[in-house]
Amino acid sequence: MSNLSRSMQPVLGCISLLTLLWATPVLAQAGTGSCLPASDGSNPCPVEMLKPKVQPLSQMALIGKQIFNDPLLSGSGKLSCASCHEPTNHYAPSGDSPVFSGGIQLNKQGRRAIPTLTYAERRPNFSIGLDDPTSEAAPAIVANVGGAERGGKSATNNAASAGNLVPQGGLFWDGRADTLQQQVLGPLYDPAEMASSPQKVIERISNAPYTADLKQLAGIAGQASPSFLLAEAMFALARYQIEDPAFHRYNSKFDGWLEGRESFTPIERAGYLAFNDPQKGNCAACHIDTVSGNRLPPVFTDHQYEALGAPRNMQITMNHDPAYFDLGVCDRQPDGRTTLSLYCGMFATPTLRNSATRHVFFHNGVFHSLEEVLNFYALRDLEPSRFYPRGKNKKVQKYNDIPDKYRQNLDTLDAPFDRKAGEKPAMTEDERAAIIAFLKTLTDR
């Protein structure tokens, strides 16, 4: 956020660490010892986490799995949900194209990078309001989102950001869907993605191998009403994502470390410390890595939104139009650039679980490695020419994917984005490499 317009900005809250079962490294000094990773990489403060029970899928979820893998639902007859959300890659794309090509002829570019579907069931509904640091539920909506002083956002200073107003929750990069059932309809009917229609989907679910089972579960209403049967099919897709443990395994090396069963290597330990250090990575300010008071494993997101000023990705055809901008949260509704102008340029903070298996990062897929992402975090305002193009006047076109009038929404207050030209970066090259080593411990097995 711009320091010049602090009193006019919405703010992104920070989940309180005082209510967590164990502290992050910089808060970990306890009266009887420390919860910092031990010198051998072990966890001196293991925790017991509440994980989803592994049990057979319900009949509705099994139908949802068939629907998830059914390409005949698409306009082309060639794309299923699994085409983009690959089960073998943690329900995310395995390729390095910034956006997916879909449509009837499979030749239309999507607008944004495809997020993973893992851990999506933990997202609260979209809302804007005071952040409740003890709950994953959506904050209460407040009428006036301006006029509040923004406190700094860090992994350790919950008091400074306790009064912050936050856009939070919702699915997609802009939070425009609240439930998995709603989310399914987005790519299904998008002309640049699965390019289907309600009529085509109804025709398919009425004449598919799973039709008899679906109609049986839908009851009399499902047999009499095609629209009701369609709603039941979307419900089945949601049940599949909720019930199948492959969408939320919580079995990474980091989970084993939390439970005291595994140890970090020296570089993983260094990366964990830098990840949590509010003066270095400060990553845990947004990507919460602690176990909550209800013993739920961390999903490495606070479910909130940030404006980071990612460079414009010219591999996306729409970006060749200088008048076109994708502004995230404020584009989630037709009047958003007016009513939600304080959030223009903000996009969802994704989970970092399985991030080491991704090949595109940020909402527009502009980066293709964790190294590029960490360099951007450390050097965005110190070496902008590394990330942004030069104009005809040879000047670096900094923040070139957000209009001037919304640049006050950019995060320039919180580390590592609080560095000014001529200052040292918050993270050294070695610390960035260590953080990447730590991020690799978040990959599900």
Give the neighbour order of strands across the main sheet. 1-2
Q: SS-based structural class?
A: mainly alpha
Number of helices: 11
Order of helices and strands: EEHHEEEEHHHHHHEHEHH
First and last CA, distance: 38 Å
The total of beta strands comes to 8
Low-confidence runs: 1-32, 139-149
Percent helix: 10-25%
Shape: globular
Mean pLDDT: 88
Give the radius of gyration: 22 Å
Strand content: under 5%
Largest sheet: 2 strands, antiparallel
Organism: Acetobacter sicerae
Main location: other
InterPro entries: Cyt_c-like_dom, Cyt_c-like_dom_sf, Cytochrome_c_Peroxidase/MauG, Di-haem_cyt_c_peroxidsae
Subcellular location: Cell envelope
Could you describe the 3D structure shown?
With 445 residues, the chain is mainly alpha-helical. The strands form four sheets. A two-stranded antiparallel ribbon has the order 1-2. Strands 3-4 form a two-stranded antiparallel ribbon. A two-stranded antiparallel ribbon has the order 5-6. The longest helix has 18 residues, at 226-243. The protein is globular, with a radius of gyration of 22 Å. The chain contains eleven helices and eight strands.
